[in-house]
Specification:
The structure holds 2 protein chains of 2 kinds. Chain A is mostly helical. Chain A is 78% helix and 0% strand. Chain B is mainly α. In chain B, helix 6 crosses helix 7. Classes of the chains: A mainly alpha, B mainly alpha. Chains A and B meet through helix 1, helix 6, helix 7, helix 8 and helix 10 of A and helix 5, helix 6, helix 9, helix 10 and helix 11 of B.
Chain lengths: 318, 290
């Protein structure tokens, strides 16, 4: 147990180190900009005196490493600074935006994960059949199409032609939970379609890889049904790669929401980031990038840890 | 395994290449046909399109008619012309970016594998950190720092993508570097460049060729997504990603037009993927065929 504990500790430390490096990149990248926040806020009306005064007020006259530590310290206390665009505290918006994005991604994951596992197992069960080949072509196509293509097709068919669901996901503070769900169905469906393919293919591949093993042949030779062989003998050993790919796809979902949010005008973190990049509102860009990157790194870390914990060779070392 | 895959590209064995092509599955043939069409359109866009690239020819958002086969866009430019020119701009920029990324990532990856030591460690750790940031997010961060222009887009995307190529180039070269013939070449006193070009490159060309296709799709999709978000290829250049965004309003009136440039993107990536799928099965045989 001490052995596996060491590996886990190593991974976690490495993850924290990565997070630290990312925060450094995000901070230093922005401070390389020729102008700073003081220029941006004052704009055309800036005189050297007012710029210098505002710099002192914002603490921009301090050296970079002190500003970095201050910035990081504030973030740990939940303070992401003020937006240059409207001068408001970023926190006011960030919380709801992040909640909305998580809501959308979780919703999509709840549909995508069970569906992908089921279809993947079926594809492994009936491999090289017409079902399997169709699934192969369809998933290969859906991996390689841009998210907005799938999004607009669903929007056109389900919302505009059939009129079943709203085409815009305008969610406000007074939106009820049920309304929130109704307005999130369409974006969640799009995310499901684009993220499911990879999980399904990996589930299929993980199971098929095991099927050439002797113990599977043994189970088949003693007259077991194919379905039972796969569920009882192949699947338990395939969990590690499957769990890994599921978590990696959750990480993808968090990032993949950006385009989908823009299509449906869904008020999430992705939309917030895109607006900020267009206005070059650097504090907001920094905050959003940091949250996205941190979520991504943490989910990857979870995938790593799970694949260690589900690996019997590491759990019971000789 | 290697001779077989390289023969695909060498001219003297055209007959054999044609035979391999004949045996290709339907999906791969379809992919080749699509790519040939795209190359044709990209090369001859000015001759086959009815109007100029950013010429305003009529009213805004005209429906499909005899004069403007696909109607007009939000500024009154001919959609068909823009879609045809998009083959040149969107695909061209993605291709250029992928080639740059391959040169940068490939060379550094092979060097890291040959030289090893602290240089390898340093570059690999930097790449690890860069790869920990999702590509789209990183691209958006860098674009907001350096500003949105085509040059910046190409440089930023090729640097981001080079990290992924570095990884694979280093990994496949590491398998070759330990071979005896590399040792022999070193003992003969061959130069670094000679070893790279004469000994290592021929042996890693097959996996790198497949990787090139995959990376192209990835770059192409990411650039299209950025353009769709208004952060990539900028107007008035005809580009599929931004065309979808500009005409997206038509969708709410039940018009299919905005889907056409999106379909053009999807079709090309699907075609490239079909070919890679076939190529991988031919050159290595994927594990999942039992």
């Amino acid at each position: 147990m001490a052995y596996i504990f060491n590996i886990l500790l190593q991974r976690i430390l490495l993850g924290l180190l990565t997070l630290f490096a990312i925060s450094l990149i995000i901070f230093l990248g922005v401070s390389m900009l020729p102008g700073d926040a003081a220029d941006a806020i004052l704009g055309q009306a800036a005189t050297p005196d007012t710029v210098a005064a505002l710099r002192r007020q914002l603490g921009l006259d301090l050296p970079a490493h002190i500003r970095y530590l201050e910035w990081l310290g504030n973030i740990f206390q939940g303070d992401f600074g003020t937006s240059i665009g409207n001068g408001r505290e970023i926190n006011e918006v960030l919380g709801t935006r992040f909640y909305n994005t998580l809501f959308l991604a979780t919703f999509a994951a709840c549909i995508a994960v069970p569906l992908a596992l089921m279809l993947g197992i079926l594809a492994a069960l009936y491999r090289n059949s017409y079902y399997d080949r169709t699934v192969n072509v369809v998933t290969l196509s859906s991996i390689s199409t841009p998210e907005f293509f799938v999004a607009y097709i669903l929007l056109l068919l389900i919302s505009v032609k059939a009129g079943w669901l709203p085409s815009l996901s305008n969610i406000r503070a007074d939106t009820t939970f049920l309304e929130h769900i109704e307005k999130t169905i369409l974006p969640a469906l799009v995310l499901t379609l684009v993220s499911m393919a990879h999980m399904m293919r990996m589930t299929r591949a993980a199971i098929i890889n095991l099927l050439s093993n002797a113990y599977i042949e043994m189970a088949a030779l003693k007259g077991m049904k194919r379905f039972r062989v796969i569920i009882h003998h192949a699947l338990p050993n395939a969990w590690a790669p499957i769990v890994n790919v599921v978590v990696l796809n959750l990480a993808y979902l968090i990032v993949g929401v950006i385009v989908v949010e823009v299509v449906f005008v869904y008020p999430g973190l992705g939309q917030f980031l895109v607006d900020a990049v267009q206005r070059r509102d650097m504090p907001v860009v920094q905050a959003c990038c940091l949250i996205f990157a941190a979520t991504y790194v943490l989910l990857n870390l979870v995938a790593d840890i799970l694949s260690i914990l589900t690996n019997p060779r590491l759990l019971h070392p000789k | 395994m290697n001779t077989q895959s390289t023969s695909l590209f060498s001219a003297p064995r055209l007959g054999r290449a044609l035979r391999i092509l004949g045996e290709a599955p339907l999906s791969a043939k379809f992919g080749l046909l699509v790519i040939a069409t795209y190359i044709f359109v990209a090369l001859f866009a000015p001759w086959i399109s009815p109007f100029g690239e950013s010429e305003i020819v009529g009213k805004k958002f005209l429906p499909w008619n005899d004069q403007f086969l696909l109607g007009t866009d939000h500024l009154g430019r001919d959609m068909l012309t823009r879609v045809l020119y998009g083959a040149r701009n969107t695909v061209g920029i993605a291709l250029l970016t992928t080639i740059l990324a391959f040169l940068l990532g490939g060379i550094l990856g092979i060097l890291a594998a040959i030289l090893g030591g602290w240089l390898d460690q340093l570059m690999s750790r930097i790449v690890d950190v860069f790869m920990a940031i999702p590509a789209l997010i990183f691209a958006m961060l860098l674009l907001s720092i350096f500003g949105t222009s085509i040059l910046n887009l190409i440089v930023i995307m090729s640097v981001i993508d080079a990290t992924r190529i570095y990884r694979i180039a280093r990994a496949v070269s590491l398998n070759v570097v330990v071979m005896d013939y590399i040792e022999a070449a070193r003992l003969r006193g061959e130069k670094l460049a000679w070893i790279t070009v004469q000994e290592i490159l021929p042996n890693i060309s097959a996996p790198l060729a497949a990787e090139f296709g995959l990376r192209f799709c990835f770059v192409f999709l990411t650039i299209s997504a950025l353009s769709f978000l208004g952060l990539g290829i900028q107007p008035p250049i005809a580009d599929w990603g931004s065309m979808v965004r500009q005409t997206a309003i038509l969708i709410t009136y039940g018009d299919y037009t905005p889907l056409i440039p999106a379909f053009a993107i999807a079709l090309l990536t699907v075609a490239v993927n079909f070919i890679i799928d076939w190529f991988l099965h031919k050159s290595s045989g994927l594990k999942d065929e039992v």
